[in-house]
Amino acid sequence: MKNQTFRMTMLFDFYGEILTERQKEFYDLYYNEDLSLAEIAENYGISRQGVRDVIVRAESIMTELEDKTGLLKRFMQMRDKLVAMEEAATEIRTINYRQYDNPRLEELAALIADHAAALKE
Hints:
Blueprint: H1 4-15, H2 21-32, H3 37-44, H4 48-69, H5 71-100, H6 103-120
């Protein structure tokens, strides 16, 4: 993945529910709300190191689960393929409009686009 923060946010979306409430809260504040370790520590009356330990442990749990299941990796691959399908359907429609005006080609392109959109939801 391109960006470590993006990857951590996606891991949280996929596996966040397995974390403890405290892990979820600290992780969310750090990655999604962009608070520093010091800010979180001050708000909760604990050390910066204590906050870091909770976040590192949460990262470790979710990374280990992703290593075992590969759900996020498969999701990202599927998302890329769906985008490619939508682009192909658009190109078919464009070529059909310019060269053929075949109702069946339009129908098939619409079907591909509809199925791709449904899978994205």
